Amino acid sequence: MTLEPALLDRPRSPAPSSPLDWLTLGDAFEAACLLRCTPPPTAARPSAARLAHAPGVEFNREDAAQRTRQLLARLDIPVTHEVVVGGLRRRYELHRLWVPQEHREAYTRVLDAGWWQGRRELLGGPLPGASPARRRLVSRLAAAAWRSALLAAGRHVRRHILGVRLTDRELAAVLIRSAAVLDVPARLRPGTGCFLVSVADGPDRARILSSAALEPARGAVATRSGVVTPTRSPAC
Predict the structure, then answer these.
(1) Where exactly are the structural domains of the chain?
(2) Distance of alpha carbon 144 from alpha carbon 60, whole angstroms
(3) How would you list the strands of the sheet with 161-166, edge to edge?
(4) Taking all residues of the chain, what is their mean pLDDT, rounded to a whole number?
(5) What is the pLDDT of residues 114-124, one digit of tens each?
(6) 3-state secondary structure of 172
(7) Fewer Cβ atoms within 10 A, N terminus or C terminus of the chain?
(8) Three-class SS of residue 152?
(9) Rounded CA gap, 112 and 109, in Å?
(10) How far apart are CA 195 and CA 2, in angstroms?
(11) Exposed, middle or buried: residue 186 (CB in 10 Å: 0-12, 13-18, 19+)?
């Protein structure tokens, strides 16, 4: 009899990358989480490329697109932002981000490294004797995971819960662990083709929203459309 795989029974990174410094790790992990919240852009779907490796991503919320642009700029990765307006009676906007061909190798490398390293830090559990700096790093990664989901995943808000719908089960596992790091109990409920991760209304919801609030920008140059020029500034 074949057992149903557990949520965390996932393959490891095929080729471990050089560890990222903690500042870069926070940005790369959050950007990778944002991408995992969304399907590839329409034009890229036939390729069936892995989400973290796709050269483009499509958001239906401007704030999610702007946050991704900010993070990629801080990682020295230029990106083109296209805004497409559609619909007849109900108008909507799609925000498409594309990485230029000459930067795609670096983009793939840093986001892949950020995802796997950040995932290990979170799911590995607290290390005995871990320094305060390392504990702050894990808390920052936990907040980044929830910030990404609240910006880019499907929100599921009811009177008694704050939830997000995800199709990526690895990210669902990361959110459950991230909530625990932030001292908030979270629930996982599998659905049809998705996972619902939720926290209770009240103090738990308030703590998640407070932890996931955006920190001040560190120098990303953002415009409404066109290519973002990356800049790098010291940590805030």
Answers:
(1) 22-227
(2) 19
(3) 154-157, 161-166, 195-200, 186-190
(4) 80
(5) 999 999 999 88
(6) helix
(7) N
(8) helix
(9) 5
(10) 22
(11) buried
